Amino acid sequence: MDLDRITLIFNIKYYSTHIVIMINSLHMIKDFKGKKIIIFGFARQGQSLASWLLDKQAHVTVIDEKSIDPNIQAKYHSVKFIAGSLELEQLSAMDIVFVSAGVPLSNPVVNEALNRGIPVHNDAELFLDRCPAPVIGITGSAGKTTTTTLVGEMLKSSGFQTWVGGNNGHVLLNDLGSVGQKDRVVIELSSFQLEIMNKSPQIACILNITPNHLDRHISMENYSRAKSRIFLFPQSRENLLVLNLDDEESSKLDTKSVGKVYYISMQKSVSQGAFLSNEEIFVNLSVDKPIFICNTRDIRLRGRHNIYNVMAATLLSLLAGAKVEHIKYVIHNFSGVSHRLEEVRSINEVLFINDSIATAPERVVAAINSFDDPLIILLGGKDKNLPWKYLIDLCMKKAKYVIVFGTLFEKLSPLLDTYTGELKTKIRHCKNLDQATQLSYELASPGDIVLLSPGGTAFDCYNNFEERGDHFRILVHNLK
Question: Which of 344, 362, 372, 460 has its CA at 20 to 30 Å from residue 73's CA atom?
Fold first, then answer.
């Protein structure tokens, strides 16, 4: 059967052992008029969906487990709002269920919809299905937002009307009516979005696949399978895929692609893709001489991991039609994205760095390896059932102090208790980020770096990592 008509929600047996679901593709739904639709989750994605669907004269019901601001409800007067959960028998009257990225497929309502064969989709898939312009889609365990932003800047600098959004916070569905055929779209996609999608962008990229979100995906196999959906549903054999040759999990996916595959590598030259040689980045797109892009010292972003992001962005931009000279300009001038090794303030020669985006141990490792200076590392947040030992060993080796705040301390206590003697004196515990920031300043000496790179999600105390990073900025600026 045609894969574009059948979506098997990847190994959904880890949610329910008996579910095998066939879902109609969104492109088969030509007209939403009169359709009875559930939107599960009513943050930015849900609100954008509601506006779009109401404009198409659909009948919309919104479910959100949190209470919805009455002022927001008033803007959607024709929407039926349900706080908490839907009665399962009410599902039988529904035509489609749209879920926000934060709603797991294991949710009883979503699970029951799948059981009943009701199509389950999201706003990103809806946008891809109807977008008239070429789309560059980017996913990975780390580096998505930086690479997405770089590609957007490179294409804009090359003269394209460029639309950038997705998992980075901007809902592209809001822009759909303005996107033209000659424009370019850059979309960041998370595993949460991809796990139910059966549309692929014309150019797809998987930067890396390392342990992340295992509290939701249960296993690395399921997590990797979710990421691979970014290219499994091509619109033609002209679709392109970029993979990281140095990353074991993503590089082995090349055999599953029906389109042309390009690679990025810091370890070896490649005949099709971007590579590093003697600290210089080159791109090979044909049998001609490789194109010189820049020296790594020209990159303003801190850390070796950002060389991969620059290589991927360069390659993707070239494949999408950007000009080499404009790519070079962006590389030389791009200083980074908020909450990603962001320099907040230097106080008495102590530099405070905001890396709130680091919601997995692997990302903290990359952050630590970006510095040779003495470090005071702030770890915290909610664990995602990920391995921590390697990171903590590295912290003990490279950091002056490790301050653990929030609920993460309970998770790490058994591991931290294994350290004795001088190593034990490095460990500090604080109730929250406020206390951790103050303590870090008290412990710091001139020349030290205080690095907020939590390793856990922000959901124990904040709505998202941006809110946590913003709070850290305020705390740092309030230090005397």
Answer: 460
- Give residue-wise pLDDT tens across range 23-43: 445 555 778 999 999 999 898
Closest CA to 141 of 310, 309, 316: 309
What is residue 66's predicted lDDT score, i.e. its pLDDT?
Answer: 78
**290, pLDDT greater than 80:** yes
Rounded Cα distance between 168 and 164, Å, is 9
Q: Could you give phi then psi for residue 342, rounded to 5 degrees?
A: -85, 125
SS3 85: coil
More confident: 107 or 10: 107
CB-side exposure of 225: number of CA atoms within 13 Å? 16
Burial of 468: CB neighbours in 10 Å, binned 0-12, 13-18, 19+: buried
What's the average model confidence in pLDDT over 383-402? 94
Question: Can you give the pLDDT at residue 121?
Answer: 92
What's at 240, amino acid-wise? L
Please name the residues in contact with 19: beta carbons below 8 A apart, sequence gap of 6 or more.
9, 12, 13, 111, 114, 115
Question: Minimal CA–CA distance to 329: which of 305, 345, 313, 353?
Answer: 313
Question: Could you give phi then psi for residue 372, rounded to 5 degrees?
Answer: -110, -5
Q: Which two structure tokens, joined as six digits, stand for 312?
A: 């991927």
Higher pLDDT, 184 or 15: 184
Distance of CA 459 to the CA centre of its chain: 16
143-165 pLDDT per residue, tens: 999 999 999 999 999 999 999 99
pTM: 0.84
Q: Hey, how many other C-beta atoms are within 10 angstroms of the C-beta on 233?
A: 19
166: left (phi over 0), alpha (psi -120 to 50) or beta: left
Instruction: Name residues whose C-beta falls within 8 Å of residue 267's C-beta, 6 or more positions apart in sequence.
Output: 245, 246, 276
Give the 3-state DSSP-derived string for 121-183, with helices as H, strands as E and coil as C.
ECHHHHHHHHCCCCEEEEECCCCHHHHHHHHHHHHHHCCCCEEEEECCCCCHHHHHHHCCCCC
Task: Report the mean per-residue pLDDT for the chain.
Answer: 89
| Torsions phi, psi for 275 (to 5 deg) | -150, 165
Give the residue carrying structure tokens 């000496």: 445
Can you tell me the distance from the alpha carbon of 456 to that of 356, in angstroms, rounded to the nearest whole number? Answer: 9
For residue 317, pLDDT over 70 is answered with yes
